[in-house]
Automatic annotation (TrEMBL):
Membrane spanning stretches: 36-56, 62-82, 94-111, 145-168
Phylogenetic classification of the source organism: Bacteria, Pseudomonadati, Pseudomonadota, Alphaproteobacteria, Hyphomicrobiales
Family annotation (PANTHER family): SLL0298 PROTEIN
Pfam family, one: DUF2062
Stretches assigned to the DUF2062 domain: 27-176
Name the UniProt record assigns to this protein: DUF2062 domain-containing protein
Xref: InterPro entries: DUF2062 (IPR018639)
Length: 196
C-alpha cells in the first residue's frame, strides 16, 4: 500500500486511538461543522434538517432515528443530509446515557410519578425485553422517556435551528464575497493583460 505505516500499530495502540484519538475530538466536531455549512442548500434547509436530527435524538426509538429525522426534515423543508448529521452529532453512544436519564426524570416529573424512591417497585427491564411485548414496555419505560423528551427537544431544536441558520448564512455570505473578490482580481488581471 502507498500510505502504510513502517511499523504497524499494536492492538493496544489501535484501541487507544479508537477510544481517544491522537488529534482529539475537536477535529471531529470541526469536520461536522464544515461538512454542515458546505452543504449545497439554503440556510433554512440546512438549519431545519440539522434541528430535525437533534430533535429526533431525544426520542427513545434508537433504531429508527434516521428514518424519523428524514421524515421530519422533509415535512419542514429541511436537508436530508443535514438531518443525518444532526442525528450523528446528538445521538451517539456517548450522549445516549445522559439523554435517557434526563428524559426519564423529566417524564416522571411531567407524569407526576416517583422515578425510583423508597415506595417504587423495580422494573425488570431484561425480562420485559425478553418477552418482546411492547405494550408492557410502553407504560413503565417508553412513555416517560418519550414525554420527557418533548421539552428538551423543543428547546434544543429552536436553539440549534437559530445557531445553525445564522452560522450557515454568515459562512455562505463570506464565501460569496471571497469568490466575488477573486473574480474581480481575475478580471483586473485579464484587463491589464489585454491592454498591454
Amino acid at each position: 500500500m502507498l500510505f502504510r505505516r513502517r511499523k504497524p500499530l499494536t492492538f493496544k495502540e489501535k484501541l487507544r486511538e479508537h477510544l481517544w484519538p491522537r488529534k482529539g475530538f475537536v477535529r471531529s466536531f470541526q469536520y461536522f461543522g464544515k461538512r454542515l455549512v458546505r452543504l449545497a442548500a439554503s440556510p433554512h434547509s440546512i438549519a431545519a434538517g440539522f434541528a430535525a436530527g437533534i430533535v429526533v435524538s431525544w426520542t427513545p426509538f434508537i433504531g429508527v432515528h434516521f428514518v424519523m429525522a428524514i421524515i421530519i426534515a422533509y415535512l419542514v423543508g429541511g436537508n436530508v443530509i443535514a438531518s443525518a448529521l444532526g442525528c450523528l452529532a446528538a445521538g451517539n453512544p456517548i450522549t445516549y446515557p445522559f439523554i435517557w436519564a434526563f428524559t426519564w426524570e423529566i417524564g416522571h416529573l411531567i407524569l407526576a410519578r416517583d422515578s425510583g424512591g423508597s415506595g417504587a417497585t423495580g422494573i425488570d427491564l431484561p425480562a420485559l425485553w425478553h418477552k418482546g411485548d411492547l405494550l408492557q414496555i410502553w407504560d413503565p419505560v417508553l412513555k416517560p422517556m418519550l414525554i420527557g423528551g418533548i421539552p428538551p427537544a423543543i428547546v434544543s431544536g429552536v436553539i440549534v435551528y437559530a445557531l445553525t441558520y445564522y452560522g450557515v448564512k454568515t459562512f455562505k455570505t463570506r464565501r460569496k464575497e471571497r469568490l466575488m473578490e477573486r473574480a474581480r482580481e481575475r478580471m483586473a488581471l485579464a484587463d491589464n493583460a489585454s491592454s498591454v
